[in-house]
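STRUCTURE:
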């Protein structure tokens, strides 16, 4: 008995010793000339534990248990090193890195992106993070679990017209660039992802900066910025075929092929895809085609790269949404809606008999949006020495397309068409089919210089862009056309926008633990509009803006596992073309908007977890918001409000609690308020004469800004070939206007998707992979987006509204074969 007690006690002491025996690995990282590399990264594979070298190129990894580890060392411009070491005591392990044989593609966006030392709130999403889910849905949907992100889909299934909001700001307030070239439309400042379908397949990685972020090209970042880097160098030849299918007759077929390096310098890549879907909403079909082609020359000092990408889209219109009375299956409300909106017999039958969650008001068989957009980029990168690189990009984007619609009982005079005399009758109205065209050109030049040496990072750049957009309308059929010809044109307007911007930023390491950051940007904008709009209103006007946007901050690293940052920045944004042209005569001219953004955060790293938290305060001056005001023809107007703000906390974590299990979790809690504003409600008498009723509000929530948002990705690798991931998203209640009315609110929702990826073992080719994505696993009935426009008719409160329900449980399955 005594012997057993002794053995037990000895075993316990050995376990305690093993549990508490902790060792240190330290060393130095240099280049092949013996120079110290400052800011090189070293991590332990399969964990989140790592370190960064100091000003002497030294690192230290502490609190390591006795075990075998794989160390990974990386540094921009140098080849990655992996080394397996066995730890039984403290060790010194030095590394010597060799320069890469070619200039890195990352140089293209280095000056516009935030690096690890910059005091900016950011996330970087690599292609591998969403590749298994990329079975046909648009890029915003692939990013739906990211921090502070809310996504929308008009068709309800994530294909066609989709949108993304970050911190409550829509795409018109999110600066988006591809290889540093602005993607936001110059006039609306919006981003239409449907115009570049399946670009996710050609994006190497995406950086999302929340808040003002660092200086970039294009429109002001009023909520966030997204910087996409297209596919980088493939040194080896490859070919890949993908095919997927799923609910709603969804199909995606794509292929990609690349030559690898030819004669050690040249490379060519081509990718094409076809995506079709009927959509969840009735007739909300999509027919999307895309292409990507790139040719490049690579050497140790130069990159010359030509990229062409784009696509065509044909989508049946579903952008009106579903009226609330229909969505709620309110029989009395639906019959009143028919009377209020003068629905025809066919429209009434459609309204009453269609599925309440799938109703589409359009019945004309070609009520479609048709658009083609082609992007061309010529990029030249020159490495001028060990520390200095330059980048020159020439770009051109061509857009051409129209949306076609059937319009009943239109006044002939509204289309510059003569009344039609039939016998003794004068016909003044007609049913017709019209096309509203957009023909635009966007081109420019971007020049940047990047300097990186030791603890100093400096970037500067100049951008010149020009946009020319032609808008016109054609009547292609009319029941009563008189003497008018086919494709009769009734309006023509032009928008010209020129921009010159410059920026300069520096990040300087001032001590072992502290780096400071400064960034200045100037934007000069000239905007001219001529001609008439579709309502035959003269919209001619001219505007100039000059913006100066400074930013500054610091990052403090009190230890290798803790990083603290804080920054303040300014962004300014010009009104959109619609803000100028939609207002009626006598209404105040919209003013530019200004944002003051304070970000401060902390990152804590351990062997099995990384946790980040940040606080933000975004204070707006003269923010443009919907106030219920309409112009003379009933279109909603954006109007300036004096003061508004967004403030909140964002939390992010990545945890590896046990081998093969990775849990990424994020949450945002925020308050989003307009301090003081006047809301407008349009009043109509029985003859539809208009007056304006107003009411003052204080401290009301900004529309489309949930108080709570959370996202999660819980992935478990069962064995080497099979991974199961549960993707979860929670979005809290959202108000549809700025009055904080409970009657005009989207209810919060919680949605889960299940992704199963299986890498089929075989020897025939490089990879055969099978993916299954079950969307909305628990069949939640939810609405992701909507709009409202209250009005008063003959003394009675009424409302125009539209809601966008999302599909219940549905699936996509795909097969990828790589050679």
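SEQUENCE:
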């Amino acid at each position: 008995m005594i012997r057993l007690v002794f053995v037990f006690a000895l075993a316990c002491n050995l376990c305690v010793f093993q549990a508490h025996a902790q060792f240190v690995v330290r060393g130095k990282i240099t280049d092949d000339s013996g120079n110290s590399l400052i800011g090189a990264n070293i991590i332990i594979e399969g964990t989140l534990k790592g370190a960064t070298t100091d000003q002497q190129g030294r690192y230290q990894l502490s609190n390591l248990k006795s075990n075998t580890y794989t160390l990974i060392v990386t540094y921009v411009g140098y080849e990655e090193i992996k080394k397996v070491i066995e730890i039984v005591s403290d060790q010194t392990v030095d590394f010597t890195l060799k320069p890469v044989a070619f200039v890195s593609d990352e140089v293209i966006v280095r000056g516009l992106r935030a690096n690890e030392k910059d005091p900016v709130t950011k996330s970087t999403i690599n292609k591998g993070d969403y590749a298994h889910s990329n079975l046909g849905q648009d890029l915003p949907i692939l990013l739906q679990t990211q921090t502070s992100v809310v996504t929308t889909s008009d068709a309800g299934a994530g294909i066609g017209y989709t949108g993304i909001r970050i911190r409550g700001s829509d795409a018109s307030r999110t600066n988006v660039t591809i290889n540093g070239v602005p993607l936001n439309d110059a006039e609306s400042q919006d981003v239409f992802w449907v115009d570049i379908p399946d670009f996710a397949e050609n994006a190497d990685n995406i950086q999302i900066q929340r808040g003002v972020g660092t200086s970039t090209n294009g429109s002001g970042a009023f909520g966030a910025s997204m910087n996409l880097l297209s596919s980088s160098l493939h040194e080896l030849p490859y070919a890949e075929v993908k095919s997927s299918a799923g609910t709603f007759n969804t199909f995606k077929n794509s292929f990609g092929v690349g030559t690898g390096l030819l004669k050690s310098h040249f490379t060519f890549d081509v990718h094409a895809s076809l995506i079709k879907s009927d959509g969840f909403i009735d007739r909300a079909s999509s027919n999307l085609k895309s292409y990507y082609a790139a040719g490049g020359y690579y050497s140790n000092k130069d990159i010359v790269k030509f990229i062409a990408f784009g696509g065509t889209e044909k989508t049946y219109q579903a952008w009106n949404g579903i009226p609330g009375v229909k969505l709620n299956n309110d029989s009395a409300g639906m019959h009143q809606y028919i009377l209020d909106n003068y629905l025809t017999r066919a429209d009434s039958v459609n309204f009453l008999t269609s599925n309440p969650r799938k109703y589409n008001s359009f019945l004309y068989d070609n009520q479609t949006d048709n658009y083609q957009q082609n992007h061309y980029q010529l990029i030249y990168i020159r490495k001028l020495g060990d520390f200095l690189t330059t980048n020159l990009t020439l770009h051109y984007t061509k857009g051409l397309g129209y949306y076609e619609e059937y319009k009943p009982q239109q006044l002939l005079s509204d289309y510059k068409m003569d009344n039609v005399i039939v016998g003794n009758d004068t016909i003044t109205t007609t049913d017709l089919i019209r096309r509203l065209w957009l023909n635009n050109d966007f081109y420019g030049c971007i020049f940047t210089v990047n300097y990186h040496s030791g603890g100093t990072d400096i970037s500067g750049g100049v951008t010149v862009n020009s946009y020319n957009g032609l808008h016109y309308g054609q009547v292609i059929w009319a029941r009563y056309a008189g003497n008018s010809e086919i494709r009769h044109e009734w309006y023509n307007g032009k928008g010209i926008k020129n921009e010159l911007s410059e920026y300069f930023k520096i990040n300087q390491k001032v001590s072992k633990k502290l780096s400071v950051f400064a960034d200045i940007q100037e934007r000069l904008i000239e905007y001219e509009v001529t001609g008439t709009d579709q309502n035959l209103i003269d919209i001619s006007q001219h505007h100039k803006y000059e913006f100066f946007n400074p930013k500054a901050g610091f990052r403090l690293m009190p230890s290798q596992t803790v990083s603290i940052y804080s920054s303040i920045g300014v962004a300014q944004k010009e009104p959109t073309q619609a803000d100028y042209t939609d207002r009626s005569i006598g209404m105040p001219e919209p003013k530019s908007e200004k944002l003051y953004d304070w970000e401060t955060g902390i990152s804590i790293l351990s062997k099995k977890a990384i946790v980040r938290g940040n606080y933000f305060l975004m204070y707006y001056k003269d923010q443009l918001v919907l106030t219920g005001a309409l112009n003379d023809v009933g279109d909603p107007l954006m109007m300036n409000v004096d003061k508004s703000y967004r403030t909140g906390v964002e939390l992010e974590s990545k945890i590896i609690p046990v081998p093969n299990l990775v849990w990424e979790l994020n949450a945002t809690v925020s308050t989003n308020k307009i301090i003081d504003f006047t809301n407008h409600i349009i009043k109509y008498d029985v003859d539809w004469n208009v007056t304006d009723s107003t009411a003052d509000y204080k401290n009301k929530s900004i529309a489309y800004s949930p108080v709570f948002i959370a996202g999660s990705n819980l992935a478990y690798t069962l064995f080497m070939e099979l991974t199961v991931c549960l993707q979860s998203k929670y979005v809290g209640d959202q108000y549809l206007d700025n009055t904080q009315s409970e009657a005009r609110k989207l209810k919060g929702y919680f949605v889960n998707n299940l992704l199963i990826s299986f890498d089929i073992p075989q020897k025939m080719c490089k990879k055969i992979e099978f993916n299954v994505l079950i969307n909305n696993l628990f069949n939640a009935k939810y609405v992701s987006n909507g709009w409202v426009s209250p009005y008063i008719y003959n003394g009675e409160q009424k409302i125009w509204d539209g809601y966008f329900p999302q599909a219940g449980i549905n699936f996509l399955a795909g097969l990828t074969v790589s050679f």
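REMARK: Helices lie at 2-20, 107-110, 127-130, 139-142, 324-327, 331-340, 345-353, 577-581.
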